[in-house]
Each structure stands twice: as C-alpha cells, then as structure tokens.
Specification:
- The N and C termini lie far apart (48 Å).
- The chain has helices spanning 14-30, 140-160, 188-206, 240-245, 253-263, 303-309; strands at residues 37-40, 43-46, 48-49, 70-75, 78-88, 94-102, 105-115, 123-129, 164-165, 170-177, 182-183, 279-283, 298-302.
- The strands form three sheets. Strands 3, 4, 5, 6, 7, 8, 9, 10 and 11 form a nine-stranded antiparallel β-sheet that branches.
- With 317 residues, the protein is an alpha+beta fold.
C-alpha cells in the first residue's frame, strides 16, 4: 500500500484519507461564488464563469474540482482567467492551487497545503505563508529585501482587509472538521471567495502575471534598483533574545482547532459562519497586555468583534 499523507505531521490510512479529501472536494465543487463577484474592501470585481481554454491541469481526471471553479475577471489590462484546482502532488501532498492566464502570461498565483496536525485529529487546515519567491537578476541581497518588502506590505494589506494573518505572515483561510464534514470558522462559499481574492491580489504584487489592478499602486520592479547594494541592516540591531521571541503570539493550528471546535460562534455577538461571518481566534487578555497563548485565554470572535475589541481585554464567557 502506498504511503499517502496529507502533509508532513501525520500519516493516514490510504482509504480514510482519500475519503476525507473526496468529501471535502465535493463540498467545494458544490459551493458557488456569489454573483461571480469578489470584493476587495469596497471595490467589486465582476466576473463570469468559465475560461477560454484549459489552464494547467483543469481538464485532468486527477484534478478533484474538475472545471467547476474557472472564472474570468476583466480588468484594465485585459481578462484574468482563473482556475482553482485540488489534487495530490508528486510528494503525495494534497494542495489547492489557483492558476491564471492573462495577456499570454500563464502561471500559479497562490496555493495552499491541506495541513494536518497530530494533536488535532480530524482537522484539515487551509494555511500557507505569504511569500514571494520569484527569481530576480542583480544584487541577491537587494532582491531578497525587495521580496521581503512585498511580503510585509501584502500581509499588512490582507490583515487590514480582515484576513487571519499571523506574525509569521501565515494566513489561515479555513479549518475543516472531517468528523462533522463542515468548516468550523467559515463557509465553503466564503472560503472560495477569499481564495480567489487573495490569488488575484497576489498576482498584482508578483508583477509578472500580465496584469496590474488599477485600484492598487504598481509593484513592478525597476531592475536598476537591484544594481545597488542594499542590505538588511536592521537585523544587526535586533537583539538575539528579541529575534527568538518573534512569533510567540502566534496561535498553533491545533490550538486554533480546539478553540473553534469548542466555541462554534463569536463569543461576543453570537454569530457563526451560518450567519455569514468568518471566525478568528483571539486572545481574551491581549498578548500585548501579558496574555498568554493558552486554551483558557483564547476565544472565537467574528471579524467585526475582533477588530472592535482591538487590544482590550474581554470578559470570559
């Protein structure tokens, strides 16, 4: 029997793993993108179903979403054609990918692992670190600094748009419970919309996908900038003790699952994903005020309540 595993942390039996992913894929196939629109803040990008021709593996049998989630979004530079695809890669890991085509530029915009954890059995996490890995000619350190700048700006933008972004620039779009066959913190429709939105935004930041969104500043690289010697000098002045503490406020995936499984709804307003909200996991006593990242100090909050609470403590329920 082949060794199939969703990701690195835990091995599953072939049959059960495949059943879980097939059920999840069916749920996503049945989800619809409301009005074929995606929203970036107050800006609405209107699309249509379908693409002019296949992109990557959109027509392959092993592609578990079939061609259900293929869309075309007209922008100022032309038509962005998108195809969402879920399949097992050559390393036996399941990933969901967003491929694009625009102005003869074809490639991958964004992808996410279907991540599992040993201490969160039955949970599948849609998570990925926001980063840019394109190769750039010129000074290597300057190119690295440019990619890092894009990572920080993009992650900051997603945070302001209400996405669940950790200090480590990891984004969590969904937590799926294989026992109940439901998402714990979102809906399939919201997950679909979020994935498409982030993919299109990331393509803008990448600068080599054939389009730029007119509502955002350009992030095309002026290669003359890379001819200068730019170093990340700020790292020299950060004490080692502080460096080691970076990301300590980050809530581990398995702990997030346990909190969402316990709460099921926003602990301040009572709304749940059924009501159209997305749940985040929040420190009851804020980390900045000495709150610790433990189960008892965490709660589920919707996006609105999480933003409204800011860095204030909230009553435990």
């Amino acid at each position: 029997m082949n060794d199939y595993s969703l990701l690195f942390e835990e091995d599953f039996t072939f049959n059960q793993e495949l059943v879980d992913v097939e059920i999840l894929a069916e749920i996503l196939r049945n989800a619809t993108l409301s009005k074929c629109q995606i929203k970036i803040g107050s800006f609405i990008l209107q699309g249509t179903k379908g693409i002019t021709k296949d992109i990557q593996y959109s027509d392959e049998e092993f592609q578990m979403l079939s061609d259900v989630h293929s869309y075309t979004f007209p922008v100022q530079d032309g038509d962005i054609e998108l195809s969402l695809q879920l399949y097992e890669n050559t390393n036996y890991h399941f990933r969901i990918n967003c491929f694009s085509r625009c102005n003869n530029h074809t490639g991958q915009l964004f992808s996410m692992n279907l991540t599992t954890k040993k201490d969160a059995k039955g949970a599948i996490f849609f998570t990925q670190q926001i980063k840019f890995s394109e190769r750039l000619e010129g000074d290597k350190e300057a190119a690295k600094a440019f990619r890092r700048m894009k990572q920080q700006v993009f992650a900051g933008m997603l945070y302001k748009l209400g996405y669940d972004i950790a200090d480590t620039h990891d984004i969590l779009l969904g937590v799926y419970d294989t026992k109940t066959k439901k998402f714990l913190n979102t809906t399939p429709e919201k997950f679909l919309s979020d994935l498409l939105t982030i993919s299109i935004l990331k393509g803008h930041f990448m600068g080599n996908k054939g389009y730029q969104l007119e509502i955002l500043p350009s992030y095309n690289l002026d290669y003359s900038w890379l001819s200068t010697s730019i170093r990340e000098e700020e790292d020299k002045f950060i004490p080692e003790k502080v460096k080691k503490q970076i990301g300590n406020r980050t809530i581990p995936l398995s702990l997030r699952f346990k909190v969402l499984e316990r709460d099921r709804c926003c602990k301040l307003c009572g709304r749940s994903p059924i009501d159209g909200v997305k749940l985040h996991v929040d420190h009851i006593r804020p980390y900045s005020l000495g709150g610790t990242t433990i189960f008892e100090n965490l709660q589920a909050l919707c996006e609105d309540c999480n933003i409204g609470k800011s860095n204030k403590s909230s009553m435990k329920y």
